Amino acid sequence: MTRRLFGTDGIRGTANDWPMTADVAVQVGMAAGLRFVRGDHRHRVVIGKDTRLSGYMLEPALTAGFVSVGMDVILVGPMPTPAVAMLTRSLRADLGVMISASHNPYADNGIKLFGPDGYKLSDEIEAEIEALMANGMDAKRAVPGDLGRAMRLEDAQGRYIEAVKRTFPSDRRLSDLKIVVDCANGAAYRVAPTVLWELEADVIPIAVEPDGFNINRGCGSTDSDYLREQVVAHGADVGIALDGDADRLVLSDEHGELIDGDQLMAAIADYWHGAGLMRGDGVVATVMSNLGLERHLAAQSLTLHRTPVGDRYVSEHMRAHGLNIGGEQSGHMILSDFATTGDGIVAALQVLALVVAEDRPVSEVCRRFQPVPQLLKNVRYDGASPLEHDTVAVAIEAQRQRLGDDGRLLIRPSGTEPLIRIMAESDDDTLVQAVVNELADTIAAAAAR
Q1: Annotated active-site positions, please?
Q2: Quick one: which H or E segment has residue 79?
Q3: Statement to judge: residues 85 and 20 lie in one domain
Q4: Is residue 82 predicted with pLDDT exceeding 70?
């Protein structure tokens, strides 16, 4: 079965344009509800959202779909994606739904689905849901007496806050750290500052005034300039930037210098490996992670397992091979001892636990390797993918040969936007720049035809 609606991270698009419309959301609710009916018990689904204006449209539409097939709906309001995954398991729900487009601007939105185990759905199950939507569901609606009900869970934030705090070592506190936390005007705008404050940190929260439009705007993990400025201005020890649904993070050190997901994975891997907490023989990351991370792990006889881009694929590989550290360069960090999906706050606490234990500046604790020169460039296109052009295929192969065995070239379409992503890395920075820029020009020319 093929998937048309679902991409690398659920369904995503511009709000009120297909597929991010109310009628599609109703159908998704009906089909997903039908797929997860399992037995005679009263079925239930947890629905959370971030702070986008369009959440007010999609939340009731999904609710209507689930209720119409007999599922009870538990609404938790604005909450991080990992909180929805956690609550799905904690509440013994049959399904979890997060309404969010993560790091995208407010005009976009998305629907992410979690199974009863709190893990994102497989490609196969997503295809089954699409098949149900395509084949008509009118005959499968519940009779009036079997309709579901909707309720709001008032203590959802408190449940998640306590669960997150339990991931921090009980013998440590953050009382000596001044922390700037950037919540991207998104789903974690209340819970993230609360977690840090209750662990005794001196907390300076920013981007915690969502208005439906300002999520990820000039803030968050993909726009960290303001965070870094505030770290320096306040003389803080560290800055934490989350994205709109708080499943990813990046850090700023005390000098306002950015620390990406690769460095954070290396720091956590070193910490857990030394403490005997690491399971498996290494770390799971995607094809985007820097070659420097791979070399750093290899020096400790550890392996970097690479997957396609998408934290879902990282998680699936971790489960299949018994590893407990995984993530993406972009800041998705999956620590399966604590969470079933990326959790920016949980990952930040593990790094902060290491900072407290080593009693050294973040700039020293979190820079574990020298990155290999790497460049990523995006080419936007309309219509058919420019990768289908013969000239592009020839150019890609020529540049791959040019990089040789000591470099890497990755060309892939984005799973969420009409973009071709070009990434190259090599110890020769000049060569990397030339390869990426020349390929970007070739692909842009093909897209313009």
Answers
A1: 102
A2: none
A3: yes
A4: yes
High-pLDDT (> 70) share of the chain, %: 99
The answer as to whether 4 is a domain residue is no
Q: Where are the alpha helices (DSSP H) in 277-343?
A: 291-298, 311-321
Task: Kindly state whether residues 30 and 82 are assigned to the same domain.
Answer: yes
Alpha-carbon gap, residue 307 to 284, rounded angstroms: 7
Residue 392: its H or E element: helix 390-403
CATH number for 181: 3.40.120.10
pLDDT in tens, 236-288: 999 999 999 999 999 999 999 999 999 999 999 999 999 999 999 899 999 99
Mean pLDDT of 166-195: 97
CA distance 276 to 112: 34
- pLDDT tens-place string over residues 132-151: 999 878 878 999 999 999 99
Q: What is the pTM of this model?
A: 0.91
Residue 258, strand partner residues: 252
3 belongs to a structural domain: no
Which amino acid is residue 175, in one-letter code? S
The string of DSSP letters for 197-233 reads HHTT-EEEEES----SS-TTTT-STT--HHHHHHHHH
Domain range spanning residue 107? 11-154
Return the residue matching tokens 């150019």. Answer: 395
Same domain, yes or no: 252 and 135: no
Same domain assignment for residues 146 and 164: no
For the cut 90, the answer to whether the pLDDT of residue 416 exceeds it is no
